[in-house]
Amino acid sequence: xxxxxxxxxxxxxxxxxxxxxxxxxxxxxxxxxxxxxxxxxxxxxxxxxxxxxxxxxxxxxxxxxxxxxxxxxxxxxxxxxxxxxxxxxxxxxxxxxxxxxxxxxxxxxxxxxxxxxxxxxxxxxxxxxxxxxxxxxxxxxxxxxxxxxxxxxxxxxxxxxxxxxxxxxxxxxxxxxxxxxxxxxxxxxxxxxxxxxxxxxxxxxxxxxxxxxxxxxxxxxxxxxxxxxxxxxxxxxxxxxxxxxxxxxxxxxxxxxxxxxxxxxxxxxxxxxxxxxxxxxxxxxxxxxxxxxxxxxxxxxxxxxxxxxxxxxxxxxxxxxxxxxxxxxxxxxxxxxxxxxxxxxxxxxxxxxxxxxxxxxxxxxxxxxxxxxxxxxxxxxxxxxxxxxxxxxxxxxxxxxxxxxxxxxxxxxxxxxxxxxxxxxxxxxxxxxxxxxxx
Length: 439
Known about the structure:
Layout: H1 9-19, H2 21-35, E1 39-43, E2 48-51, H3 60-66, H4 69-89, E3 93-96, E4 102-110, E5 113-122, H5 129-138, H6 146-154, H7 161-209, H8 215-237, H9 241-258, H10 263-283, H11 288-303, H12 308-348, H13 355-362, H14 366-377, H15 381-397, H16 404-410, H17 416-427, H18 431-438
Antiparallel strand pairs: 1-2, 1-5, 3-4, 4-5
Helix pairs in contact: 1-2, 1-7, 2-7, 3-6, 5-6, 7-9, 7-12, 8-9, 8-10, 9-12, 10-11, 10-12, 11-12, 12-13, 12-14, 13-14
């Protein structure tokens, strides 16, 4: 892409840092090649930052207009106005440039940067005499061949309003993709800056209070770190994400205070933390093979890191990934346990069942299986057992060969009186009345 060699280069470099040069080139060129329309990136003053000249050239009409310095300035003012209007409304802005051509602008808003992708150089109607006369008035004062300009205007591509709107919408998608990529980088930078600020503040606080370190204090430092690592492992295993995140930050402060400039040492300590956290996740019930795969991915990421501040963000993301996976894994296992408990109840509702019996079937503690069953189905184990028994009783009551006492016994109710009370509470009628209606 052709770029202007001016003070605008700083803006270009800033955009490339956020979005990436390859992505900017690819997005603009792909749009131009697919639509046959030239696309340029401008700032809010109408200055062209990036252009797709090598992919799609300006039409002859525009080249002649811009060959005059005053014409080029008018184009810039048109772009600046379009950029302002597009940013104001946050959507594609279709406009008519100073020379009478139809163009459109898609806004790009990144942090303090305001700009637009501008495209067009078309007509939406057949050029008639009055239009060519209007062009003659528009270009008056410019040192160009008016007859040649009018002839070039007659050769311009004519697009319907639907196609113009569709192209503007597509350009808006391109602009949004660029903004999304830029915002992702900005967010990551802010996270790194915020985390580094917190860590730096605590490190400085420690340095202000720091006294000469003796051998005993050094040993105590190591013991304290081991205690924190053990506590972190316990918190991760129990799924306590907020406390785990706070303790990890304290450990990161310890690690950075010990070897702030030795990248290899820092990477080694980070990998040790990854091993501690991954083991805790496995102890919490996660699948070992899947945890090992995650560990392998984090190890590859770690090798590509070149700055200490990126290590801290890596550690934060590593902990969050492991804990989210552990939580998802636990939810899946809980759902399986709930399903298994429900199936066990359906198979054994006639028997005298206790919570201990159900818990033993799913290999969980009575307290834990009761809690996850209530969370998952909205009722307790015993309430669910009662519902299953009542549903079975309703089926049997519809059969003439069973009386109410037989139904109560076959449904798992030892006391016919209790059966009647429970049935009426759930169904609104007694078993006898239900049987009358059913028959």
